[in-house]
Amino acid sequence: MKILLEVKNLYKSFEGTPVLKDINFRVEEGEFIAIMGQSGSGKSTLLYCISGMDRPTSGNILLYGKDISKLSDKQMSEVRLKQMGFIFQHSYLLKNLSIRDNIVLPGFKANILSREQINQNANILMEKTGIHSVGDHDIKMVSGGQLQRAAICRALINQPDILFGDEPTGALNSGATKEVMNILNEINHQGTTIIIVTHDAKVASRASRVIFLGDGAIHDELNLGKYEEIEEKNLYREKKLTSWLERQDF
Ligand SMILES: Nc1ncnc2c1ncn2[C@@H]1O[C@H](COP(=O)(O)OP(=O)(O)OP(=O)(O)O)[C@@H](O)[C@H]1O
């Protein structure tokens, strides 16, 4: 498999206080990685550094072999817009725009695909995530789960190489969490590489690999293999992950 992302000797400090220390890992195309760890261990900082939302203090981040840690702000925004998708705990959709307009907006901004292709992608994504019927609704008129599904569609409109999520299910109830995770697993099966930060072991059990951060360094990794919708297998995955997390003192 091709290496999509490579993190080399990554350090990050805030005002001289070290937060990330010598982080090294590689992400292959098609992986689904969950980053876990105690509160304050540096999970979000790591996600922001590898996705270009923040700058490492030192070290390299290679996207398909190209070092993105040294790009100018303008070049980095271009990479983020065209090659990366982002979802957060809250959807951050724009008020006064419909669900559909929120989804297509980054498509028009990136200017890679034609207007027709963008609208077609939006239709496919809304259909896939089950929000087509609310496409013309104002964002105040839909549920939290529907908003998060719209945020996923928006993140995927430019067909990014990689989708980053910071606690993407953190504000959802268990039903909506399951729906969002089903969508993420489907997108991943279709080829999009995913990296999320989560506190939720059930959510992390959907990933193919779990990275555990402790005090700003990688403590351990667990390979779970690709998620499949098979109940007995999934109970086993959850059990394996839970006992591994216990060993990490989580
Ligand atoms: N912009 C910043 N300026 C100063 N310190 C920061 C900044 N961002 C994060 N930190 C510090 O870096 C450390 C790691 O924070 P980070 O948010 O990455 O941890 P986390 O593992 O994601 O935590 P949580 O699970 O609570 O969200 C914390 O001590 C935090 O206070």
Automatic annotation (TrEMBL):
PROSITE patterns named among the record's database cross-references: ABC_TRANSPORTER_1, ABC_TRANSPORTER_2
Keyword Transcription carried by entry: no
One Pfam family per UniProt: ABC_tran
Gene Ontology terms for molecular function: ATP binding
The entry's keywords: ATP-binding, Nucleotide-binding, Transport
CDD domains xref list: ABC_MJ0796_LolCDE_FtsE
Domain ABC transporter: 5-240
Keyword Repeat on entry: no
Domain of life assignment: Bacteria
InterPro entries named among the record's database cross-references: AAA+_ATPase, ABC_transporter-like_ATP-bd, ABC_transporter-like_CS, ABC_transpr_LolD-like, MacB-like_ATP-bd, P-loop_NTPase
Protein name, as recorded: ABC transporter ATP-binding protein
